[in-house]
Amino acid sequence: MQLRTPPRDAGDLPLEARSADEIGVAVIIPAYRQPGLLPEAILSVLEQQGPVLAAAIVVDDGCPEPETARTALDFAAAYPGRVFLLRRRNGGLSAARNTGIDFALSAFPACRALHFLDADNRLHPHVLARALAALDAAPPGIGWVYPDIDEFGGHAHWTTGGDFSVLQMLTCNYCDAGSVIRREMAEAGLRFDESMRDGFEDWDFWLSAAGRGWRGQHLPAAGFLYRRRPESMLAASERLRPLLLGQLQRKHAALLTPRRLLALEAEEAPRFALHTPDEGAVRLVVDPGTPGHSLTPAAARERLLAAMERPAAAQHPEMLCFTEAATLDLLAKAGVLHMVFWWAERLLREAQVVALEIVPTQEPVLALERPGRADGHVAGAPLLLARSQVLWEAAGDPSPRWIESLQDPQPQPITALLRLHLPMEAPVSSPIALRLLLLEVAALARLRRQRSALPAGWKQEYRTPRGRMAAEAQALAGLGPILPRLPQPGRREIGFLLPLFSFAGLEKVVLNQAALLRSRGWRTHLIVLGTGRIQRGADFTRSFDSVLLIDGLGENAVAWEGGYFGAGVSHFGGSAAARDVLGVLAGLDVVVNVHSLAGQALMAPLRRLGVRTFGGLHLIEHGPHGEPRGTPHVQAAYEHAYDGIMVISEQLRDWCVGAGIPPRKLHLVRNAPGYPTRPARVAAALAARQRHRHRPLQVLFLGRLDWQKGLDRLAEMISRGDAGLRWRIVGRAVLEEGPAPELGVPVEPPVFRPEELDELYAWADVLVVPSRFEGVPLVVLEAQRMGCAVIATDVGAVAEVIRDGEDGILVPHHQPEEAIIAGFVAALARLAADRAGLQAMGAAAAARVARAGWAQTMQDFLAHLDTLVPPEIPARPLPERRTMTHATDVPA
User: Fold this and answer.
1) Where is the Glycosyltransferase 2-like domain (predicted)?
2) What is the model's pTM?
3) Which has more confidence, 646 or 377?
4) Last residue of a domain, one of 255, 276, 295
5) What is the pLDDT of residue 300?
6) Which of 448, 569, 574, 887 could, after both became Cys, cross-link 563 (CB 3.0–4.6 A)?
7) Which helix (H) or strand (E) holds 395?
8) Cβ(531)–Cβ(543) below 8 Å
9) What is the C-alpha to C-alpha distance for residues 464 and 171, in angstroms, rounded to an integer?
10) Is 841 contained in some domain?
11) In this structure, is residue 12 part of a structural domain?
12) Structural domain boundaries, residue 277
């Protein structure tokens, strides 16, 4: 074969033998079965122009064609010190490249960069000079420069322009192996995976580099030429694409963790553009509660224009929010900011605009409704969200009827409404949000007129649009959009998942557990999966940083027939909406599922994502025939999906062991009174009973007026008991439908404030608890603390907090109804006659409960959590908001 001598000019370095110290770039050319194309690749290296000398390292990967080695040897003889031949057993493309890397690092101490050139590709003469200049000018974190894909053989040309994005790389490989990398990347140990012989090894290489903190940079007009043939290794790889993608995802799972994805989204692709006139800027954020990046309105529009012109190369938030800072502050203080934005994002899948209406309520409730069409609420809505693409298209419409209709009493049905009920005095209404939206559409229309025709690039685009790349990357992890809430430096995140939330005992337990965790540095969140309305008392904000209400997504789909030993099995986990709820939970460190049946199906995927999962069990329920049922049975079916399970009693722990739950997973976290009270208040109640020991016995029933609580038994004991007893019945029906039995005593509404509860317990001499099933009722512990004796059916774990005859009375439950009622009547008569015994019983109960508190009962569990999720050293505070004045200042 006759070798062609590369052209020379006055600026060229001489072609005679060179020392290794002169080689600045090592070009590694794996060679296998392409001897006819290899000379073009080698010559394109020798023809490189510029001040830095390049060497071609041909790696014969066990090629069966003798011409491959012969060609390389001929070049090496003609260009000593410039062309090298390495021979090895066949190991695949990755092994060949790694052999070349190791040789280059050892042979060329002055080599600054490496380039990977396949034997069928070519380089224009200035590729390596341009690449080295770009690397020299780039920050140290830029590890490689990558070219466009300019084909020969085929006729397509593909752009890879725009700032480098790890999120985009997770869904699409746009860095060809024919890139130039810094020597430092290879010296740090980065190599191609030799086990990946079926393809995508270059995609894996770049993801590995990104995982180590390196980033790439696009090299415009690089001059790299890619040979495209209808049948090639790439074509074979594409046929195995699902298999290879699964391999990549498993290997780079660290890049797909929810927190990493959310951090990448905040860095590379902010989700929301917040237009707030009082700030005088547009903030680009993932989390609306964080500063994000600030732009002038004009710069934000230029960025939006760039995203419309080149959607795969430039990014602008997909959603625009129009509001005032005071509205965002109000939502943040109420703990519902992220809930509002999460729901608005879901609604924007179908609606053009989402309006938020804030309705005051005097009740201690929090509610979120989605009534559908917004009707006339848009004009006064304090917050509006719309998709950027929708507003851009409206700006190009000479008469956007639907935009104009937003000012009408009945906007078009493409507008959706979120109605938020908050405990507050006056409604929140403002015309500012709509005015901002209309002004923005007008400003975008002027910008579009100035740019009447969008420039058409001559190169094709194949990458994921940057507006969707975060969602597509999150989908790879099995998630819908991750809740737009960034973790707070130095704080761990824990969420309590419940099917409903009222002022019952179970909710009080959760409130106290959350409050203690919050006092220990955790950020606590309540997620209610199954209702859009909860009761929220004064102590709610002491317990929770945020709340998210989710309902109407199919969470009530349950299979009772064919379940697990009679327990229901949730169908929610297989639904599309479940991915959205997983996105809510996936950013947490710990999730505690407290009786949410729909949530059971979400625990296994959460655990695979690295979230620690715990169950919270409070009682075994019973059906109308006394048969056991309820959440503990469901928990046994899903036990494998949990790191641990909290139980409130030894009785419940023993049941779980008997149901096959490993004892090591069970954590005994006993209940304590639902609220704190002053010791002086307890002493005053004890003293008052002593002074008034001759008055008629005062008996209290406090709780839900439902069948479970034995309301029919209560009616019978009132009618049969001593007429001299003074009764008070406090509560309301929560779970039951239909008329309650006639009690013969006025029913007082429920009370929730600690001082009101203390007054009730201090008034009573005796509390009656005639329940059919219970866990460890807080009402018992709270009454005991105030020296009030308790008469209760011996159900659940009540016997663990009442010593029969010492600090209360237990009525056996496994007997006929008549005997149970008679037992309560007899116990009341006995205590009415024996006031000294009653006083001793109350004092013993008060002394016993005084020794217990939530800090004591949760001590071991908190230590366990610290082992699983160690506290972090507090990080530095978030930087101040950065003002950007030019679109080019913004990372795209």
Assistant:
1) 27-142
2) 0.88
3) 646
4) 255
5) 96
6) 569
7) helix 388-395
8) no
9) 7
10) yes
11) no
12) 259-476
